Amino acid sequence: MARRPLIAGNWKMYLTTAKAVELAEAVAASCAGLSDREVMIAPSFTALTAVAEAVAGSPVRVAGQNVAWEKEGAYTGEISPVMLQDAGAGMVILGHSERRHIFAEDNAMVNRRLLCALQFELTPILCVGETLAEREQGNTFKVVEKQLSQGVQGVAGEQMKQVVIAYEPVWAIGTGKTATKEQAQEVHGSIRNVLAGLYEKTLADEIRILYGGSVKPDNVDSLMAQPDIDGALVGGAALKFESFDRIIHFS
Ligand code: PEP
Description:
The chain has helices spanning 17-31, 48-55, 81-87, 97-102, 107-119, 132-136, 140-151, 157-160, 181-198, 201-204, 220-224, 241-248, and strands at 6-10, 38-42, 60-64, 91-94, 123-128, 164-167, 209-212, 231-234. It is α/β, with parallel strands linked by helices and 251 residues long. An 8-stranded parallel barrel has the order 1-2-3-4-5-6-7-8, surrounded by 6 helices.
């Protein structure tokens, strides 16, 4: 079945509200009438409400960059799924490599966040990906399979249809080193096989798998031409309208 491509921008800890709104408005204007692909932006938590208002009525979707695993409670520094929705987000990035490697989030924690996101009807983008050392040791598939299977543990097939996976090799994030289209396709194909094993092939064929890691205007077209690459999770190049716009309008 045809999977609708998703181009997602992760603004990380950049852009204060005024700048975020300016960029969001430009993206929304450029996406007017776009129906063959989906576009998402993930601003910082403090800019979420203003950005959601800026893109209201456009096809652009808004996401949080993480979510807590409880609806509310004594969790200083965390944002609950209800708060994300209240701010206008309908999606959330989970298990980003910066969360895993800088903030020590493990698969169990990412899984709890994912289950909670689904419970509150946020579309999760689950990020997986190996470090350079893991790739060089030949452990790419093992690492990705573990992150994936533990990340979606307890997710029923029906709910799994809403989950988006993002393959982001850690060595390619923010480094300017993109995986070749062959390297990316190889891992995307294996992720789909793992999903087929965990669920069913027909379900695996419906799930979108994004590639992330130095996606730029000059490499997006060849990456998007791969059979198992269904979109892009874009960091640096999503912070500038010209580059993100070119990526959104990949051919
Ligand atoms: C990311 O933050 O998910 C990412 C892929 O960043 P970049 O595009 O800058 O490599």
